[in-house]
């Protein structure tokens, strides 16, 4: 990629974040009119990416980036090919319309500037995700989408339902993101492949790996949680607590497609295996049918659309799992079509809510006369969602049936799931787009009205785009769907499907789907009550299970905290020392690397004197009848160690040890004089025995550990380095001082910080006041009124 092209790429990536920084100021100055200048940022990014379309459609791949963390071979790098470019165009193009829509929908909202910042931050994160080439860069943007979606879903944070929906989305998608991180790390460490370009060029390297199954499962966990596959789907309907612009953008065209993008991106490297063609179609088919049934059960327009999104994502996962060239083409056609018609229908739902002040289907009707533009936009989008020609949804549905028309039980089962799911979604589309606008208007609706141009512009443009794309299908395939499918397949593909029907099996199945959808639409009221009754009888579900899991997590954390942190210092010390003992003895036991016990050396009389001083200092500590004597006796050990340093020719280290030991004894003695403690230790014998066992085990563990280290061959690499460079670089002849002050200067500063914090803790301990007798902390496990 040339320097100018790379610069344009960086500009496209940076524009949403720049708009996020400027949004509060512009909104404060221009009010609701700030949407128009703010929309210029995603529009400019759209045209920058559109400039790459001719090269991408010719098969070119543009790479740009720079070293980020060279020591770990991590680059801040990006890849523009058919897949990432079309995703980028959807993100920025629909994002431009969403910004304008938000200006009208949230006009006068006191936090509109904050909302714009959040939506632009999400836009930048999503754009970076689909363009990222380096695996770690991809993960950073992946998690940033989870964080920014949390902010958007919980935008109305004063409502408990919004807070719950935001937390649920963050927990589920964030947990999946951690699984994805593990998978990406395994890929990097196992194969040395650090970028998507390298992964795609490696051919069967991942498929032939002994760790293929763990890599696949971890990647699928990330994709399934993000793209709301059963049973991880519950976060998406609950995310409808967000303002409608968020639903129209995140949960139809962008965030929920992140998992689909990941599967399409990894398909050439992980696909076409028994696990791939089993897991993905199974999860996808179940998600498709169950999501479509739940959509029919809902009465809120946004919830209906949310469950049809779940169903559509299931259909995409099923097609990617089938993995044939035709199936991937069908997935690509449906993905683009879904982004157009579902984004438009969500904006229609917001327009209806804005004009009629309700989204309940049973309370709506006759709005077509008062809101003709919204009605027209709704019908355009619904016709595409229903797979009616000449709309892009028709192209996708025809190709879906072409991909599954095999006389094999596996394909027959998937075909049945596709027909049932598509028929249910056909009915749901017209329930949303037709019922609110036809018939008699209920008296409860007061003065319905069409929204401003910024509200109806978005759905109308997306509806017309679905029509124009199908009418000019040759150009549409050449510029968008063809390059996208080629990148997902890993080889050039040709797409010839058009809006003119052909009399074949796929068209017959398409007509059968439409007929079944009409029947379901006419019987929707009965089916809705039946599904609602069945779900009421079942009772428990993944949504309730999430709440139970979160409550269990909190209660478990409280119990563990109560066990490990009961408020008793001796218990803290016992647990800490026990963990240290396990860390010392565990490796020795596991590896059998016990050190050889050396012979006792011949000592000079003064060395015997120091050794005797060490032993003599231990006895007063153990036998002392009061705490002050024990503290003073403990200092003998430090002084003896200082004498050893002096005898071995390290006077500066010996002096440091003398100073540290003296200060430690003085500080401990002062602290003890200020605390209200009994003079003697009145613990029962069993506690003293436990403390003695822990002390002996810890001492023995450290002794064995030091012996094992001393018996290893000495590596002089660091010693030679410090000898060579201490004076040449740091201009110091005392190597120890140079190491502490220059080479380990940051560590030394950290140690100073630790000492300071310890001093503050001692000060707080000295100043503490005992509460009234009988006072206690509240029990987190007790029910509060």
UniProtKB/TrEMBL annotation:
GO terms for biological process: monoatomic ion transport. It is a multi-pass membrane protein. Residues 132-415 form the NADH:quinone oxidoreductase/Mrp antiporter transmembrane domain. Keywords: Antiport, Cell membrane, Ion transport, Membrane, Transmembrane, Transmembrane helix, Transport. Residues 612-676 form the MrpA C-terminal/MbhD domain. It is found in: Cell membrane; Membrane. One of its GO terms (molecular function) is antiporter activity. The chain crosses the membrane at residues 6-26, 38-66, 86-108, 115-132, 138-155, 167-187, 209-225, 276-296, 303-322, 328-352, 373-395, 410-434, 455-476, 505-523, 572-593, 605-623, 630-649, 655-677, 689-710, 752-770. Residues 689-767 form the MrpA C-terminal/MbhE domain. The keyword Protein transport does not apply. One of its GO terms (cellular component) is plasma membrane. Residues 69-116 form the NADH-Ubiquinone oxidoreductase (complex I) chain 5 N-terminal domain. The keyword Repeat does not apply. PANTHER family: NA(+)/H(+) ANTIPORTER SUBUNIT (PTHR43373), NA(+)_H(+) ANTIPORTER SUBUNIT A (PTHR43373:SF1). This is Putative monovalent cation/H+ antiporter subunit A.
């Amino acid at each position: 990629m040339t320097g100018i092209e790379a610069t344009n790429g960086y500009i496209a990536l940076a524009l949403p974040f720049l708009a996020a920084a400027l949004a509060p100021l512009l909104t404060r100055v221009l009010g609701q009119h700030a949407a128009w200048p703010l929309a210029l940022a995603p529009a400019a990014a759209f045209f920058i990416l559109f400039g790459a379309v001719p090269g991408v459609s010719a098969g070119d791949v543009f790479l740009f980036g720079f070293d980020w963390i060279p020591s770990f071979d991590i680059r801040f790098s990006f890849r523009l090919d058919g897949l990432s470019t079309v995703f980028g165009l959807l993100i920025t193009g629909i994002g431009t319309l969403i910004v304008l829509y938000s200006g009208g929908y949230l006009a006068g909202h006191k936090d509109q500037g904050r909302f714009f910042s959040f939506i632009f931050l999400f836009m930048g994160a999503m754009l970076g995700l689909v363009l990222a080439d380096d695996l770690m860069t991809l993960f950073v943007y992946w998690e940033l989408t989870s964080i920014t979606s949390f902010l958007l879903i919980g935008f109305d944070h004063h409502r408990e339902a919004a807070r719950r929906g935001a937390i649920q989305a963050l927990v589920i998608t964030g947990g999946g993101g951690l699984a994805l991180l593990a998978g990406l790390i395994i890929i990097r460490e196992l194969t040395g492949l650090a970028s998507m370009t390298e992964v795609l060029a490696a051919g069967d390297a991942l498929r032939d790996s002994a760790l293929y199954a763990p890599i696949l499962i971890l990647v699928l966990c990330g994709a399934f949680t993000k793209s709301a596959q059963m049973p991880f789907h519950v976060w998406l309907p609950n995310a409808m607590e967000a303002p409608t612009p968020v639903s129209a953008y995140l949960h139809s065209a962008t965030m929920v497609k992140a998992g689909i993008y990941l599967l399409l991106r990894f398909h050439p490297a992980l696909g076409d295996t028994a696990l791939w063609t089993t897991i993905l179609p199974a999860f996808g088919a179940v998600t498709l049918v169950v999501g479509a049934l739940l959509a029919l059960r809902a009465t809120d327009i946004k919830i209906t659309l949310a469950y049809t999104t779940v169903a559509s994502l299931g259909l995409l996962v099923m097609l990617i799992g089938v993995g044939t060239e035709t199936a991937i083409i069908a997935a690509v056609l449906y993905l683009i079509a879904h982004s157009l018609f579902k984004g438009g229908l969500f904006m229609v739902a917001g327009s209806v809510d804005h004009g009629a002040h309700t989204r309940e289907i049973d309370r709506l009707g006759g709005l077509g006369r008062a809101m003709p533009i919204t009605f027209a936009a709704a019908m355009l989008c619904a016709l595409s969602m229903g797979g009616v020609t000449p709309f892009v949804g028709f192209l996708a549905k025809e190709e879906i049936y072409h991909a599954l028309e095999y006389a094999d039980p596996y394909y027959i089962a998937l075909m049945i799931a596709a027909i049932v799911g598509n028929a249910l979604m056909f009915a749901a589309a017209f329930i949303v787009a037709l019922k609110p606008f036809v018939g008699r208007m209920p008296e409860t609706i007061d003065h319905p009205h069409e929204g401003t141009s910024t509200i109806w512009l978005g759905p109308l443009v997306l509806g017309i785009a679905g029509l124009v794309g199908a009418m000019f299908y040759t150009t549409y395939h050449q510029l968008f769907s063809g390059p996208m499918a080629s990148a997902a397949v890993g080889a050039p593909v040709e797409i010839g499907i058009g809006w003119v029907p052909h009399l074949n099996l796929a068209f017959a199945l398409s007509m059968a789907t439409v007929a079944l959808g009409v029947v379901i639409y006419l019987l929707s009221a009965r089916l809705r009550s039946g599904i609602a009754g069945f779900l009421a009888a079942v009772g428990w579900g993944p949504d309730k299970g999430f709440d139970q899991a979160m409550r269990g997590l909190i209660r478990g954390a409280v119990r563990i905290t109560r066990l490990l942190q009961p408020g008793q210092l001796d218990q803290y010390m016992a647990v800490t020392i026990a963990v240290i003992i396990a860390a010392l003895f565990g490796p020795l036991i596991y590896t059998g690397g016990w050190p050889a016990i050396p012979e006792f050396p011949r000592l000079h009389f003064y060395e015997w004197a120091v050794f005797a001083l060490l032993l003599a200092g231990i006895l007063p500590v153990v036998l002392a009848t009061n705490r002050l004597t024990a503290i003073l006796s403990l200092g003998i050990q430090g002084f003896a160690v200082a004498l050893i340093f002096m005898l071995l020719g390290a006077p500066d280290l010996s002096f440091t040890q003398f100073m540290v030991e003296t200060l430690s004894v003085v500080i401990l003695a002062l602290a003890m004089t200020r605390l209200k403690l009994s003079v003697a230790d009145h613990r029962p014998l069993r506690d003293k025995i436990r403390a003695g066992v822990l002390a002996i085990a810890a001492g023995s563990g450290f002794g064995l550990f030091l012996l094992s280290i001393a018996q290893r061959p000495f590596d002089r690499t660091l010693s030679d380095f410090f000898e060579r460079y201490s004076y040449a670089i740091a201009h110091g002849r005392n190597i120890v001082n140079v190491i502490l002050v220059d080479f380990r200067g940051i560590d030394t500063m950290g140690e100073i910080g630790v000492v300071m914090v310890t001093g503050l803790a001692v000060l707080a301990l000295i100043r503490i006041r005992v509460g009234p007798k009988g006072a206690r902390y509240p029990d987190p496990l007790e029910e509060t009124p």
